[in-house]
Amino acid sequence: MINLSNIVHNLKAQPDDSQLIKIDPEFEHPIASIEDTKPLLLISDFGGSAALQTLYNAKPNTVLAIIDSTGRSASELRNIRADLQKFGNRKIGAVTFCMTEKNFDQSMRANMNKPNYFPQKVLQKLTVMHGKPLFTTDVLNDTSRVLDPIIIGAHISHPAAGCAEHCPSVAAVVASIDEQLTIYPGSVRLQPTYSSAKWRGTHLKREMEYQILDLGDMMVERLEAWKRVHPEATPSIVFYRDSIGYLDKPIIDEEKSVISAALNTVFGKKISCTYVVVNRYRESPYDTPRTPHPTNGGMDYFTTSELEGSNKGRQYRYFVEPATETLPQADLDMPDLARLVSVWT
Question: Do 101 and 182 fall into the same domain?
Fold first, then answer.
């Protein structure tokens, strides 16, 4: 068994020049060891557990849960993690990360010669969950003519085939708020999975909803968050839209119109915005007879296979949509966009 007190001591002892999360060495972190997760949800006395009561009253902003997986099935571990997340996220309001004792022990053993070692991946995940960057980079190198940029990403996640009937889809929009383009808070909405359903003989034919229905509201939320950090600035925007499958022109045009309206709501004027469709599929409805190349400024798309250091196993195409009267493009050509993408590919 791992001694939890030693774990906390090692975490607090991390040297200032290497830690990713600032740990107050004077703060006495409460520790609770429990045999069953049921008391976690029994507010207010937690089934008589003084340790859980102390942990709850301390209101920590981070909860690290280490689970003894010995003799437990995969379904049991899923239920334990679910209870721990409910306790940490809902009851305490803390960032909650769960890992098994086996994984933790393997990580510790692999780095036994490092003084005061604490698993780096755990610290990285906690850092990201707290909304802090893991790295800094000059992503705007050679694109200095673009002032006050915002990088926005939009995506819809549809339920898998085995999910319950009427399970909704999840749409999300994330947008950078810092000058280094490394911090991306987001907005999330539930929406119907299908846009329509018609009987064809004895079969019900459903059409998937590919449009982000609450895009306008989420765009306003993200733009207002950026404006709070840059109150006097006028942004230039690159909007990356994950197409999932087939994203036809009417949907693109409608979303561009919604984006334009959101920009006018927040800034009260035309704002430059380059709308880029990201498609993962080898056979894409956007294919053209031309051979894409990111160094050719006249092309309207490029692929990740052409980017240095890209993952050749996961090919993506980036299609730059034309500007409209109400949505002029940001001053970025195809090589600029390719360089931006290469930072994260």
Answer: no
Confidence of residue 21 (pLDDT cuts 50, 70, 90): very low
Say if residue 67 is in the same domain as residue 197. Answer: no
What total of structural domains would you count in the chain? 2
How far apart, in whole angstroms, are the C-alpha atoms of residue 229 and residue 78? 39
* 135-153 confidence digits (pLDDT tens): 655 555 555 567 788 999 9
Tokens of 267: 């800034």
Model pTM score: 0.65
8 A C-beta contact, residue 151 and residue 175:
yes
- Domain range for 180 is 149-344
The enclosing H or E element of 254 equals: helix 249-267
| CATH code, 221 | 3.30.420.10
User: Are 153 and 184 in contact, with CB atoms under 8 Å apart?
Assistant: yes
Helix (H, G, I), strand (E, B) or coil at 78: helix
Query: How many CB atoms within 10 Å of residue 195?
Result: 13
Pairing of strands 273-279, 301-303: unpaired
**What's the N-to-C CA distance of the chain in angstroms?**
40
Rounded CA gap, 166 and 16, in Å?
50
Residue 138 domain-assigned (yes or no): no
Are 121 and 263 in a shared domain? no
CA distance 239 to 323: 12
Residues 21, 49, single domain; the answer is yes
| Chain centroid to CA 89 | 17
DSSP class of 12:
H
Residue 302 in any domain: the answer is yes
The H or E element that residue 173 is part of is: strand 169-175
Q: Is 144 part of a structural domain of the chain?
A: no
**How many Cα atoms are found within 13 Å in the side-chain-facing hemisphere of 229?**
18
Q: Which residue has the tokens 């704002």?
A: 271
How much of the chain is in helix, strand and coil states, percent to nearest 5?
A: 30, 20, 50
Does residue 141 sit within a domain?
A: no
pLDDT band (50, 70, 90) for residue 8: low
